[in-house]
Design brief:
Low-confidence stretches: 1-8, 136-146
Strand content: over 45%
Structural class: mainly beta
Number of strands: 38
Radius of gyration: 24 Å
Largest sheet: 6 strands, antiparallel
């Protein structure tokens, strides 16, 4: 009976990562915690709890907390919207609600990264009325539980222009009568306002879906929308000198999309990328419970020129070999049957990261993610799953360079908010490589890349693991970095995968809680 425990207790950690820990320091309790590596041997952490904001500065080499400054001079009802690094400058962007006027004011506050202190508050603009949240963010992540952002903060490819976008809350709940009013405010990289306006959309909410936004280095805003009746796409452009312009795009109409991401490329064009599906599958489990699953067939990419025309569009269907990887024999048989019908895909794949490189190439990373009712130990519960990872690279000419699938199997009770943030993935782009970090079952430490993963359940320790993907070849190396229950003799509590960050080239850092009102920094340095 002890043999399996002895085997799993002797897991060999990767020699490619040197792990070290800091001296413990007093904890900062805050629902929002964000970390930025400044690239000069220091990191900045900003933690927000209501109108209290704490800045901490750390030395990367020693991991010591060298400065801590607390501020309570923020307006009432303050909520963080973004911590934005632009070159060697760092800005804290936040909003505050005016309860009497029912309006929102948006502010920026630069951080003096040498002193680890705030500079003066700068008012950017005030809305005309109430604002609706921009979208869903995972609870327990950057935004904290229940703190949905109302303003999107987006920068151009070169960081010279910054867009703050928002949606006015509609007066009526009838989507067939409402025309969305969207706010667009554009600034330079010092948050000097260039232009700003609220714009009425050309179609009703029922007629169109707003999919994604981007800004180019000339300060022109691009918005991608889906016209529901015709299943067509439109690109909407807004600038400081001209009003709204919308143009229908000649892209495929017979595909279904959950999400698109827009990014400005190095040449100034706008790239749109998203997963496509040829439909939704209905599943019924043994209890009779019905669920729906998106059958993702591949990636669709198109490039929009400055005049709104399409330069190129390509779809990249997943190969049947990629689709069948890590499936059971029964599932492989079903995939083969779907392939014969032209409908084979990867169920419940969700777009997580879309990276545009300086050379025009792009990397797209997705993760299987779904929720269903099932047995959890002794009772029926709603369980959220985070499954296999899919990574794809496309070069500047539109050629598929590589597509890889990596085994991962995580699950957590949907109601267990405290452990939800420990699952999923954290992506870090390195020089010549891509790193995908996640918590894994210790049984998978010696797992071969052709084997499906054993399940890891949220709240039950696990190994912090990394897949390293070579950017040029797509070659994958797997590394078991550390045991969360024994980091140099200490156990990590309140672990959140979103708190892993790149402190410097080849150095990752992570802050964990170790009880007794103390935090600790963990450094993971690549040795190769």
């Amino acid at each position: 009976m002890l043999t399996p425990l002895l085997v799993f207790g002797q897991v060999k950690l990767s020699p490619d990562f040197k792990v070290s820990t800091s001296t413990p320091f007093p904890v900062v309790d805050a629902p929002s915690k964000e970390y930025v590596g400044m690239g000069n041997g220091t990191t900045i952490s900003v933690k927000t709890r209501g109108e209290l904001v704490i800045i901490q500065k750390f030395d990367v080499k020693t991991m010591k907390e060298v400065q801590r400054n607390e501020y309570e001079d923020f307006p009432k009802y303050t909520k963080i919207q973004s911590l934005l690094k632009v070159g060697d400058r760092l800005y804290y962007v936040f909003e505050a609600f005016n309860k009497k006027e029912k309006t929102f004011s948006v502010y920026s506050r630069e951080i003096d990264t040498e002193k680890g202190s705030f500079k003066e508050i700068k008012t950017l603009f005030t809305t005309k009325g109430d604002v609706a949240p921009t979208g869903y963010k995972a609870a327990g992540g950057f935004w904290g539980i229940g703190a949905l952002p109302k303003f999107d903060v987006i920068s151009s490819f070169d960081g010279s222009k910054i867009l703050i976008q928002y949606r006015n809350r509609p007066e009526s709940k009838n989507d067939s009568k409402n025309y969305d009013e969207l706010g667009f405010y554009v600034f330079d990289n010092t948050f000097t306002k260039l232009w700003g306006k609220e714009v009425k959309m050309p179609h009703t909410e029922k007629e169109m879906n707003n999919l994604a936004y981007a800004i180019n280095k000339e300060g022109i805003v691009y918005m991608l929308s889906r016209i529901n009746a015709t299943k067509s796409f439109e690109v909407i452009t807004v600038s400081g000198t001209e009003g709204l312009k919308n143009k229908q795009l000649p892209v495929q109409k017979d595909l279904s999309f959950d999400k698109f991401d827009l990014r400005e490329s190095a040449n100034g064009n706008i790239i749109a990328a998203g997963y496509y599906a040829n439909g939704t599958e209905t599943k019924v489990d043994w209890t009779g419970t019905m669920s729906f699953s998106r059958n993702i067939n591949g990636i669709y990419v198109f490039e929009i020129a400055k005049d709104g025309s399409i330069v190129r569009d390509n779809d990249y269907p997943f190969s049947i070999e990629l689709i069948k990887k890590y499936l059971s024999n029964r599932q492989k048989g079903k995939a083969d049957a779907k392939e014969d019908a032209g409908t084979a895909g990867i169920n419940d794949l969700v777009l997580r990261n879309f990276v545009l490189n300086d050379d025009g190439s792009m990397v797209i990373i997705g993760e299987i993610n779904y929720t269903k009712q099932e047995f959890w130990f002794t009772s029926m519960e709603m369980v959220t799953h985070f499954g296999d990872i899919v990574a794809t690279k496309i070069d500047a000419s539109g050629k598929l360079v590589w597509a890889e699938k990596m085994p991962k199997n995580q699950a957590v009770l949907q109601s267990n908010i405290s452990d939800l943030g420990s699952l999923g993935i954290s992506y870090v782009q390195g020089k010549g490589a891509h790193y995908i970090l996640f918590v894994d079952n210790r049984k998978n430490a010696t797992l071969k890349m052709d084997q499906p993963a054993e399940p890891h359940k949220g709240g039950f320790g696990g190994f912090l693991t990394a897949y390293k993907i070579d950017d040029a070849t797509g070659k994958i190396d797997k590394h078991s970095i550390l045991d969360l229950t024994n980091i140099e003799g200490l156990k990590a509590y309140q672990f959140n995968v979103n708190r892993i960050f790149e402190a410097m080239d080849k150095i990752f850092m992570l802050e964990v809680y170790i009880k007794d009102k103390q935090d600790m920094m963990v450094k993971m340095a690549l040795t190769k």
